Structure of Protein HOTHEAD-like:
Amino acid sequence: MDFQIFRFFHLILVAVFIFHDSWCYSDEAGNYSFMKNATSAPKLSHFDYIIIGGGTAGCALAATLSRDATVLVLERGGSPYDNPAATDIGNFANTLLDVTPNSWSQLFVSEDGVYNSRVRVLGGGTVINAGFYSRGEEDFIKEAGWDREEGEAAYEWVEKKMVFEPPAKGWQSAFRDGLLEAGVSPNNGFTFGHINGTKFGGTIFDREGHRHTAANLLEYANPNKIVVYLHASVHKILFTTTKGNQRPKAYGVIFQDVSGVVHKAELATQGSMNEVILSAGAIASPQLLMLSGVGPAAHLTAYGVNPVILDPPMVGQGMADNPMNPVFIPSPEPVEVSLVQAVGITTFGSYIEGESGLSLSISLTRSFLDGVLKLVKKTKFPTHLISKFFEPLDLRLNLTAKAGVIIQKTNGPLSRGHLELRNTDPDDNPSVTFNYYQDPEDLNKCVEGLSTIMKVIDSKGYSKYKYDGVSARGLLDIILALPTNLRARHITSTFDLKQYCKDSVMTIYHYNGGCQVGKVVDDDYKVLGIDALKVIDGSTFLKSPGTNPQATTMMLGRYMGQKILQERTIIRGKEEEETVKTEL
């Protein structure tokens, strides 16, 4: 009878963790007592969970786990609360283009010749992105094997803290009307759901234009059980020494603060469920696995990584970045400052989105391109041609706010690339190849997407925001004249949309892969062949979910945090039960 009561007590605890998803504590965003500079970290510390990366998934995961375990978050960047004005909607472009050494946006150029950015700030991509919030498609949830009801609850947990309905003002409303005229129907109104047709999705900007980020989810955290170290650069995951057929087991990490002091954090010795969890994103997670000795052995040996812990060939493989192609439309009428709000979800696999009223700082634009030139020296692209191409840039990018930009994003995508080490510096960029439009199906989606954009521009609903006599096809050519990437321009781009797609491709910053489910991690996100190590972030995705991955990435952090706690409670109950039996 005593054992039945004991088990009943633990079942109650499990039920509490499953259904009680609104735990709140006293710390408010921006005033977290547990957020500290890594320089204050002890040389050695112990936690139940060590999370590498305080980004889109990491913050949700850490807040959840801290309810019933001690948690350490190691974030290589700083705090978004240090400069809140930089996150406001009016500063979106300038913050994204600020690639100075201590900025939140770290520039890299893929081997495809496309500019891209990694994020280095608490809150991850939610601090510098366009703010659009839309859930993943039903098929994505089903293919991931997630419980639908628990996934719904995880989405709602995020939405309660940081998601809003956007104001449907002039330009965005005209864009919506143009999408409907172009055949992207039906009109689905405002919804978080991923539904074919035209809709307004959520936004992480409030009505005053202030951004709310994944860092705000740490308001849910138990401040007595979590520590967040900022400017903490993780150099290596530590593994136990193996003998014979023993599996390697993660037991800690080495990280460095801004003063160059090295620290070690280890998993607490008590607790069989304790783990190191990589949540560093699709670039840093596979990179850090490799630097820790987990990856293709020949590649690691070539860069002096020693010892090689495990030789999984798929680490760094399956890298993908949804290609994006923009069209810039000068407007005869004033337009509101707006980021992505209305979106067309087509049946042919292209998502049509729009922004208006953006402004660029010329000094930051020049700084950005200076950064590009420095990085180009590490690639196959000729620097003298790029420098010449950039000479007239100041005039061309002195953009007025009276304009809109409509883009097509290819879903999936099917084209895949890979990530490799360039050196052994964890703060430097690895070599990344995405192979944009390598798959013909991706290219066909782009052509149909651009054709739809031209219909939107020429529609009656959008006509107020386009100069008379300007053709939609002529507007596409404006992009070809700008240094939007480092790729060659072909004369055929002016009449061949397939070539235009290839020549004008840009990133929409939705890259994924490198630690994919079924290839590097299992369905529970455990690294195959290694104990006490998980990867929980966008690097595990087989494709980008929905029109924007941030909603599902945050949901994943919350969802997996809940699942881990449920399993932890059950196992702890069994261990305690065994202890009681032994004592009796």
